[in-house]
Amino acid sequence: MTGIAILLLVFFNWVLSTSVMAAVFVGLIMLVKVILKDRLKPRWHYMLWILLILRIILPWTPESSFSVYNLFTLNNKQESTPAPHNINIITPVKDHTLEEMIPDKGDTYLDIYPTMEMNSTDQRLNSHVSTVTLWLFLLWLVGIVFFSTQTFLINRRFELNMRNESATIDPNILSIYNKCRDTLSIRVSIPIILSDKVSSPTLWGCLRPQIIIPRSTGHILTSDELRYILLHELIHLKRKDIVINWIMHALLILHWFNPILWFAYFRMREDQEIACDTLVLNSIEANESKEYAMTIIKLMESVAQRLQSPGIAIISGNKKQLKRRINMIKHFKKSTHKWSVLGLTVLILFSVAALTHAKGHPQLPEGSTSISQESTIQLMHNSLDPITTVRGKLIDSTSSDKEIVEFQVREGIHPVSYLNVGNHETIYTNGYLIHKINGEYSKMTYIGPPPLTPNEKKLPKVEQTPRRDPANSGIAETIIAPEQNAMAYLEDHTLWSVKGEDFLLGRPVIIISGDLSHDFKSKYDAKKFTMWVDKETGMLLKKEEYDNKGKMTASINVLEIEINPTLDETLFYITSTDFAELYKKNTNN
Predict the structure, then answer these.
(1) What are the extents of the domains in the chain?
(2) What is the model's pTM?
(3) What's the fold here for domain 373-588?
(4) How many other β-carbons are positioned within 10 Å of the β-carbon of residue 92?
């Protein structure tokens, strides 16, 4: 899987989680609207939807103990429990030279595959889940293309219809229009177009907005009715409602699968019109409210078909909206300081509760941990003890391509590993290191048989409890068995210390930090380091190095980690036919 594909899948997962949080947000908005009803003025009802847009857009929000999302556990991942693996493995050959590993037709050599009695159900389940995820991702992309195309065609058609229409030069309309601009303190002047191709007065356009009035309607409107209409559309312009509609519609395309957000979009448009009505009523005399309502009804009767597009704002609306708008106009009273304070208070409280993220686990202050240097070293030394399988993703900043590394590793008596970086796959199985480029086998190296017992060690003997050798897993080995790399940083106990504890990737970690030794300073062009060690397994989840100015010079970051999941055993499998071809290719070279 390429880096771009991985990033798209990560983005897809973010969209899914954001969509769930947005659905909760919509539920809270509707709850507030039901509880407060008319006590909350229309513009504050509309502002709640603006907060929803911010919630969906923001990739990060601050944590808060008051966040409503503390009630949910959207990001918790459950770890699989260790499951025994029943693997068919051939007996290692006596001679370890590649030249003597010529396969016969009947040989299976590297045919390592899980038997069906124990693992078939889990294997099929994992394959099914991966396939379902992929199909959902593809379906999501198809939906985005469909709704994007539909939106483009609707707006393109409307634009073409309006292309040959010219701005009006009617002095009566222009005089009323300029008075409306003065009333609302709007300096910019936009064209007013009379057209037979719309059935209701409309504000259209985001970059070059225009007010479009039906030609037939323009001739039957009184001067006051025209003034109400122009005030309404100019308020849409002043409040940037078209821009907001486009942003919400773009988000709706990303979350097209979420019916709650479709509902929210139409409710937002409805509240937008009512909020606009309120501002019109604030701009005219109190005794003109009835005439304004009658103007809306008059326009509603002349509408043949209402165009649905984020790029327009129509004064007339539909029949359902009409009932709410007329009821609001009927009971309208100009805003008081009391209700403005209530609206602002609700907005602030709502922001604290819904625009924040669930409170994470607090980092323990330095020195608050009782974990010693010795216990940390022992933990890292025995990192393989609690592990049967590991699956995850990481990024090594020192690598030339800096792509995401996917890895799957099985430890134990017969360790195997699989790494995928871009189009390059590396497999370690039964003593062989096998490389694949773009899905094709390219190189094979015999590096020795796997250890025959869990207690056999390649590392120097130390006065510690013996433990298993790790699988040869490249950069992932630095994470899984940090003793082989990171422990060299900790040889001099006077140069580093345990700084505290924290949580990383939802797991408890020990933070250790200190100065590099003289040899390491010259080798890595760095002065200091910090490591985040998994408190339960001893694995290294993160490592950073810094220069003398505190600037990070190198890092290894684990992006995802699963302990003891069921792996895709097919990744470690090579047929005897492929082995023979790869052997021939290597010997000829």
Answers:
(1) 165-332, 373-588
(2) 0.58
(3) outer membrane lipoprotein receptor (LolB), chain A (2.50.20)
(4) 13
